[in-house]
């Protein structure tokens, strides 16, 4: 278990005492400043490739075993994260753009969001980190498909009805306000409460870890439907000491193909037959009114020429 814990710190690129800061990104070690496929990025929906032939996204994502996860919380100076305690059974992610199974090992939180969609940032982003099943983390960090990270964007709405999502985490936050605090005693967490309302609607691309050493070994799956959290819960994160008021990396050059799932295009479907019929009826009515008004105008010109009284031209409704 000790070896697993050390590896989990390595995969996040966050080791106690590591000499890096969000205020000095240009000084980050590893390939953070030299890599060609770095993360996070601004995802432009109009540029994303819709994979209708399932050449890259081969079917829906499958999440198994996420409802009861034994994890321990920690503030490591850069984020708050919850790490899997028991390595058997691990929650498993498969499907979508992934080739094979990926085992969940930890999740952590960024505020503001790291990714942007169509230029818009969100208040928060949750990252679920997975390692390719059968590999150690050290092995995974050397393979381009070694890791898979699911990013869930969060939107803030007021009201207690929006406190369900983070309801299991917020009682732990006061114990994680101080840097280097924790780990907390392990507890059972239902990770599905942290999922997007539509876990089949996503963008995916190949990128990197967003913390040093920024290894380019990550299949990113970014959900495009935000999770709703409460304003009261979000304010708690402003009290968490992570060395600054936020903990997100700057956006990196896109310079690669981004795919989007078919579910993410649902809002782009053609109008219904009834909608098309209504539009045609409205167009017909409009054209009829324009033609009627045009004829009336011509008649008035003739009446005026002959010195007769004109009548008011009113567009038909």
UniProtKB/TrEMBL annotation:
Family assignment from sequence similarity: Belongs to the alpha-carbonic anhydrase family.
InterPro entries: CA_dom, CA_dom_sf, Carbonic_anhydrase_a-class, Carbonic_anhydrase_a-class_CS
Enzyme class: lyase
Keyword match Protease: no
Catalytic activity: hydrogencarbonate + H(+) = CO2 + H2O
Cofactor(s) this protein cannot do without: Zn(2+)
Pfam family membership, one: Carb_anhydrase
Official protein name in the record: Carbonic anhydrase
Recorded superkingdom: Eukaryota
GO molecular function annotation: carbonate dehydratase activity; zinc ion binding
Transmembrane regions: none
Function according to Swiss-Prot or TrEMBL: Reversible hydration of carbon dioxide.
Matches recorded under CDD domains: alpha_CA (cd00326)
Signal peptide: 1-17
Name of encoding gene: LOC113402406
EC number: 4.2.1.1
Entry keywords, A to Z: Lyase, Metal-binding, Signal, Zinc
Positions of the Alpha-carbonic anhydrase domain: 18-262
